[in-house]
Amino acid sequence: MSQFFMHQKSDLVSEAIEGALIGNPWHSLSLLDAGPDIRVVVRNDWDKKDVALISGGGSGHEPAHVGFVGKGMLTAAVCGDIFASPSVEAVLSAIINVTGEKGCLLIVKNYTGDRLNFGLAAEKAKKLGFKVELVMVTDDIALPDNPQPRGIAGTALIHKVAGYAAASGKSLEEVMAAANEAIAATASLGLAFSSCHVPGEKRDERVKEGQSELGMGIHGEPGASTLKTQDSREIVALMAAKLAEHNPDNKKTALLINNLGGFSSLEMAVLTREVLRSPLGKQVDLLIGPATLVSALDMKGFSLSTLLLTDALAEALQAPVEASGWQPASKPAPLNTRQGEKVARQQHFAPSENASTAAIVATVCRTLAELETELNQLDAKVGDGDTGSTFAAGAKKILAELEANRLPLNEPENLLTLIGEELAVVMGGSSGVLMSIMFTAAGQKLEEGEALPQALSYGLERMQHYGGARPGDRTMIDALDPAFAALTAGKSREEAAQAAKAGAEKTAQMSKAQAGRSSYLNQESLHGVKDPGAYAVEQVFARLAAQQ
């Protein structure tokens, strides 16, 4: 059984609907009591004086469709099981309970189950004397030769346009015309790095690592093609070009940037930047998102929808609504910058040559750069998986300075101070600051006349003073402390390397970390895994010993 946050699969959809209603900020929705297995959400304020709008379909696309029920948008949403169309009876129940004299418009995504069940319900309602019309959303352009294009995230735009027309008191014919105008003007294209995780089912792993699937359906259906890339710029350039083909006159558009469920906010922000910097972005007059409007459970992917604007459509999209799932449309904001005063470097040192020192610096930096992936993988077991990248960032910066002959290699006190300054700038998190403290304090001691081993030990003591970690706390200090102690006692690099290795190996047997990210983990997670910082120190000293 695949993992999914729920109690029982049979109750999942009903319990999710209840949660959505309880959390509705306007407290304006109710669950229609029309018999067992009828899951229809309706507006509390509905008085049947305007055209009713009903949409729905399979669940798993939240916030669609319940999130679009509210003043200015849908009158009711009919919810089926996960990715399964609601029954004819459920759709008919919605129609007869919310439709007044002006009639009802059904807004349906173009899938066989939805077409049949909503269509038959519409015919039954007409036979009962209700005025009912149906529009089909066909915005997916992934398969251009498909005679039955799918309805995907652009459906939310149709809800908004039709909702505005209905709220403006227009007739059923006028509301339907507005919806059809928006449908004809809308094009959508999706892309995913992985399929969705259907409750109780095994995840489909057909998309290989490093690849993406263009046009994957919102139920996990195979897309139009597989791309051998996950690069944001390559993907956006391809998708923007395909969407631009549906706007040959370069008309102003509304752009919906939709999260299919599994993209992080960080990724969605990158996506937004890339799209708005593309040729497509120059046509965007209104932006909706980035946000999750029509999801596919937890699919790691997104979709882009464009709607060719007229003044009437722009007005409809910008009208305020009371629907929790809608994201207000707005003008794309320009990127503003404000000139700031740069922090001046505290020290300025003239470059100087020293072959022996250069060799040591190069060995340390290249070792840490080469260990980036290995350290990240090790840190992923006991931390947040970025130790290798953090150390490599600092190492690559110092190595670049070395290769450009910008280091005071013949002045060790200035060299350590300069390294301390650089690491504080380029290394993220606490590691950069801690290493900067150690090198800065060590440089100060060298300037006062201390020998290098004693200066490094003093720098380590300052690191411990400010950072709070001590030997035995399962950090890099467990390898640094014995190695520096060996050097201070006059021992060789080989002996210092052995001391560092012994200290690093001890961290794998420590049952509890007292500092760093590992301190949040339990004994089982830590046992047998070396602290990545300590392992990095071990490897650096091993390379230095081999170099001698």
TrEMBL record:
<dbReference type="InterPro" id="IPR050861">
    <property type="entry name" value="Dihydroxyacetone_Kinase"/>
</dbReference>
<feature type="domain" description="DhaL">
    <location>
        <begin position="355"/>
        <end position="546"/>
    </location>
</feature>
<keyword id="KW-0067">ATP-binding</keyword>
<dbReference type="InterPro" id="IPR004007">
    <property type="entry name" value="DhaL_dom"/>
</dbReference>
<keyword id="KW-0808">Transferase</keyword>
<dbReference type="Pfam" id="PF02733">
    <property type="entry name" value="Dak1"/>
</dbReference>
<keyword id="KW-0418">Kinase</keyword>
<dbReference type="GO" id="GO:0047324">
    <property type="term" value="F:phosphoenolpyruvate-glycerone phosphotransferase activity"/>
</dbReference>
<feature type="domain" description="DhaK">
    <location>
        <begin position="8"/>
        <end position="326"/>
    </location>
</feature>
<dbReference type="InterPro" id="IPR004006">
    <property type="entry name" value="DhaK_dom"/>
</dbReference>
<dbReference type="InterPro" id="IPR036117">
    <property type="entry name" value="DhaL_dom_sf"/>
</dbReference>
<keyword id="KW-0547">Nucleotide-binding</keyword>
<dbReference type="Pfam" id="PF02734">
    <property type="entry name" value="Dak2"/>
</dbReference>
<protein>
    <submittedName>
        <fullName>Dihydroxyacetone kinase subunit DhaK</fullName>
        <ecNumber>2.7.1.121</ecNumber>
    </submittedName>
</protein>
